[in-house]
Automatic annotation (TrEMBL):
SUPFAM superfamilies: FAD-binding/transporter-associated domain-like. Its cofactor is FAD. PROSITE patterns: FAD_PCMH (PS51387). It comes from the Eukaryota. One of its GO terms (molecular function) is FAD binding. InterPro entries: FAD-bd_PCMH (IPR016166), FAD-bd_PCMH-like_sf (IPR036318), FAD-bd_PCMH_sub1 (IPR016167), FAD-bd_PCMH_sub2 (IPR016169), Oxid_FAD_bind_N (IPR006094). This is FAD-binding PCMH-type domain-containing protein. Pfam families: FAD_binding_4. Residues 68-243 form the FAD-binding PCMH-type domain. Gene3D superfamilies: 3.30.465.10, 3.40.462.20, Uridine Diphospho-n-acetylenolpyruvylglucosamine Reductase, domain 2.
């Protein structure tokens, strides 16, 4: 095990070079461009008419659509694994820093902008989006440029009783999501997306491709948390989880006069003890508590649990397949499973631009504090 650990540490040193590609020596942008063109890798320069539309296509934080951000010199759009390997080699040879972008949902735009370096290129993986689901082994290989919606759709096309525990927003890219966690409706029973990754193919600084065996367990651990730092993950193999054929969902908005403060206060106490099959989230905004649930089972059972724990009646509870429930939770009650394939964020019921952070409270927020919070909401 010690030998294995040391091998892993050596790998980390090698891989670390990708992230710090020389900032001291000046990048040769012409050399980089020439290298890409020798290898016939699709690339857009700032002067090209397609540059801004393609760059902005995966800028999910609208603040960074503005002119205030440092833009990449080049947008490199590989269409196969060899392109990614060669782009990394070209970057290294010509001292061009590379940002890796999959779905572009990074809140700080780390995949496509820079605050100080003027010479950098974006390696955009959005054309690498193949998903192969194997229902025999309950696994799937998914390329980093696929969205979560494309992954869920592909699983739903093959089976109604398989699912994957990732995030709720279908336009999030697999590449960044699996590089840093991934929580969603199945997390209480099946954990995070990264807990269910079983293998990956990683392009490292010298352009070679490593899999789980050749990269070693330390690196395999590191890439599921250190997105953008250790190399470019081309694709991921994930284990799928078993889902009942019937999943139920419901939404219920409770206003202040209907007891929202009491219900949210109580939700904090009962939610941790609810069955693992139940995901119940509450969004507090516009003086309402908006409860949304997804349950691995039928409506009768869901209503019983909701009524007993929170006094919610679940009147509009609906039964459907898991993949349909995924569309319902983020895109709303009229969404179809095909909507999961849309890369257009405007379909979402959630606001188009927001920034979120997650905190873990160890003590419930007292009722008085909730009353004050509701008083301040508009
Ligand atoms: C609207 C919205 C909804 C969200 N919902 C959820 C949710 O329900 N659950 C949840 O857990 N999170 C959620 N997130 C957060 C999201 O999972 C992370 O921001 C994630 O990193 C985005 O991945 P991406 O590929 O879209 O982003 P990108 O901006 O492309 O990448 C994010 C980071 O990962 C690196 N990276 C990307 N691809 C690769 C790759 N192939 N190899 C190596 N590094 C790579 C990038 O360089 C960057 O540092 C949400 C974010 C938004 C904006």
């Amino acid at each position: 095990q010690e030998v294995h650990r040391r091998a892993g540490a050596a790998h980390l040193r090698l891989l670390g070079r990708l992230a710090v590609i020389s900032s001291s020596s000046r990048a040769s942008s012409h050399g980089f461009l020439g290298c890409l063109s020798d290898k016939r890798i699709p690339v857009f320069t700032q002067g090209s008419d397609s540059f801004m539309p393609r760059l902005n296509a995966y800028v999910r934080n609208p603040r960074f659509l503005e002119n205030t951000t440092v833009r990449p010199l080049y947008l490199v759009m590989p269409t196969n694994a060899g392109h990614v390997q060669d782009a990394v080699r070209c970057g290294r040879r010509h001292n061009m820093s590379i940002r890796v972008r999959s779905g572009g949902h990074d809140y700080e735009g780390l995949s496509y902008r820079s605050v100080n370096a003027s010479d950098f290129a974006v390696l955009d993986l959005s054309e690498l989006r193949t998903v192969l689901v194997d229902s025999q082994t309950s696994t799937a290989w998914v390329e980093s440029g696929a969205t979560l919606g494309e992954l869920y759709y592909a699983i739903g096309n093959v089976s109604d009783v398989l699912g994957f525990p990732g995030g709720v927003c279908p336009t999030v890219g697999v590449g960044g999501h699996f590089s840093g966690g991934g929580f969603g409706t199945l997390m209480r029973k099946h954990g995070l997306a990264v807990d269910n990754v079983v293998d990956a193919e990683l392009v490292v600084a010298n352009g070679t491709v490593l899999n789980r065996t050749t990269m070693g367990e330390d690196v395999f651990w590191a890439i599921r948390g250190g997105g953008g730092s250790f190399g470019v993950v081309l694709k991921w193999q994930v284990g799928l989880v078993t889902i009942p054929a019937t999943v139920s969902v419901f939404k219920e908005a409770v206003s202040g006069s209907e007891g929202a403060v009491d219900k949210v206060t109580r939700w904090q106490k009962v939610a941790p003890a609810l069955p693992g099959e139940l995901y119940l989230r509450v969004r507090v905004q516009e003086k309402k508590a908006d409860f949304r649930a997804s349950f691995l089972g039928g409506c009768d059972d869901l209503r019983r649990v909701m009524n007993r724990s929170l006094g919610l009646n679940g009147a509009d509870c609906k039964e459907m397949t898991w993949v349909e429930s995924v569309a319902y939770i983020w895109l709303g009650s009229n969404a179809t499973r095909e909507d999961l394939l849309s890369r257009n964020t405007s379909k979402s019921e959630s606001p188009n631009s927001f920034k979120a952070t997650t905190d873990y409270v160890r003590q419930a927020i007292p009722r008085d504090a909730w009353a004050e919070i509701f008083g301040k909401l508009v």
